[in-house]
Amino acid sequence: VFPGFSGALSFSNCQSWEYITGKSKKQEKRFAHGADCGYNRDMNESELYKATKERALFGAYLFHGAEELTKSEAVERIRALLEPDVRDLNLETLTNPAPSELLQSCDRLPFFDLQRLIIVKDWGTELADAVADRLEELAEGVILLFVRRGEEKRNSKLYRSLDARNRVVNFEALTFERAVSMVTREAALRRVELPRPVANKLVTMVGLDAYRLRNECSKAADYVGRGNTISEQSLNAAVTPSPEYDVFVMLNRLLSGNKRAGLRLLKGMLNQGEPPLSIAYFLEGRLRLMLHAKELQKAGVSEAEAVKRLGGSPYAAKMAYQNAKTQDEGKLKAAVIALAEVDLKLKQGLQREEDSLALAVLRCF
Q: Residue 97: is its pLDDT beyond 50?
């Protein structure tokens, strides 16, 4: 890889930073101490992506948070920084190692490369407490990633130590807007067009599970073919919607007066094992959203502004606003009460779940 060299390469942090990025040693020193480096105290995903792209990572980091897909992708991007020919020699994954094993691994220099990567998973309190104060003692060129599935306790010694040096990255659960951005990027990678309104509907149909969003976006892209545009019709044909979206469609059928179609959808969901209480909760939430939209309409708020105020999925908010126009406010309130009573009647043992939900739907619509 580097002709003329034998054994491990060892650069000081300043040298390697200057070698890779052309920045001065003064800039490197400021970065190494976590001061004035262009980051907030808590590094977010975009900043991590930028630092990875610029090869500005060194030392220890903690990755945690609810979003596992983007977390694993971030680890993979860092892994890709290693020279392919010697990657196996400079990559080590440790699961709940003993403190001595980890510290010994951190003492090893990169082999024929500028960097060496150590990934630690499923560690316990003993390891965290033992190494938290020794994270500045890593060999030159070592990147140490503590990758926690889910959330790391913020009062842990490891978290506090790394957070103080801007070395904690929280991969937060997807918001609607971030999910739309994610599927838009995925569509672009697959060389298909995904208009914003269609991306909104895709996220509404699938929900905020990153793995499912990626899979369903891929299915829609394969359905239309490279160079073409994903439409709402494409989504209806190719995408498997979430149970919540099926309830959303059922409600639209009921509100439009097509009771037979709505009840058929309800029966199908129950036959597939969807919990009646979950269906009742979702229906109640949709109807409450429509009541809010009704209030905004009475106040003279435009549809575009109402969609913003209602929040959540713009597609769902728009549908709630439009449906609210044709619905009687008193009937909506009565329906909310009837669906809220499904849980009460179940707890009182007055009716079975399926019967209570079906009767509530029949009475409401």
A: yes
